[in-house]
Amino acid sequence: LEEKIAQLQCEIQEVEGKNIIQEKGIGGVGCILRPNVADQAAEKANRIQRLAAEKTRLKIPIIIHDEALHGIIARQATSFPQAIGLAATWNTELMEKVAAAIGKETRSRGIHQVLSPVVNIARDVRWGRVEETYGEDPYLTASMGVSFCKGIEGQGVITTPKHYAANVGDGGRDSNVIHFSERLLREIYFPAFKACFEEAGAGSVMAAYNSINGIPCSADRWLLTDVLKKEWGIKGFVVSDYGSVSGIWNMHHTAATKKEAAKQAIEAGLDVELPSVNIYGEPLLQAAKEGFVSEKTIDESVSRVLRAKFRLGLFENPYVVPADAAKVNDSQEHRKLALQAAQESIVLLKNKDNLLPLSKSIKSI
Question: Which pTM does this prediction carry?
């Protein structure tokens, strides 16, 4: 049971020189390769994999994740225009090429999952994450999201469309409570997610911080099981936003205890808690031991995580070649592509009636 639950856990802290992985394995680690240049990141990724693949009883490899909205976040990685700029190119073929370059750099470092793209619809410019999105239009967002996922997944890296769903910030406040009708969700806020899964084969999805109509997204069975798995037939796994499982208990207060939060999340269909062990640690273990959560429910989540690891080929080959990472990252070819994307993302404003520059005599707008 401990080893099963470990596959639903992640760590964001340094794992080398500690006994975090060796004792019972772990599902994944995140964001610990950022400070390293490409070949050093690959070397470190290999060392971390060895802890799991050679030092644990079951020898189950690890999924390493990071963010890659416009390039993998790391030293010596190519930086492309931010998502809102890429959307402004209106060029889905270019988007797929950019994503393929990002995927190649990502995989070469030993990273297997990116917490991208953001396919939330941005309809309030006060929201602090507008630049991470593809804008306000569901069709453009779906088209860009599909191209991004195709490009990344084609390089053997799992994409994670986020934040499911409607993490738009009521009143412009990030991750605030949302009160939307089902029709609004289905017509405006769901289509891009659905397209990423059905057309591009996205391998995971991130549940959002916010609640919808009083239910936290990370504990919403309708969202995570009825729509995702039953209606859309998604075979991938569901991860939490960073700390969103804890939010069931300490932000939304729909659970009185951590153990109850664990039950709500895993029974809703949330498979992996990010970024570190909390609710899916001792609270979930105790809930399972007491029969508060059935082991069958845990088995279902574990199977989705293991399926992803098999699909990535990690059991056969968990390691990468550091020299290849040094060649691929920040290459001239990728720099040239980044320049093209930057040029195509430029937006010109029409200065109708010479409104600009504004007169200094204007006291307020």
Answer: 0.94
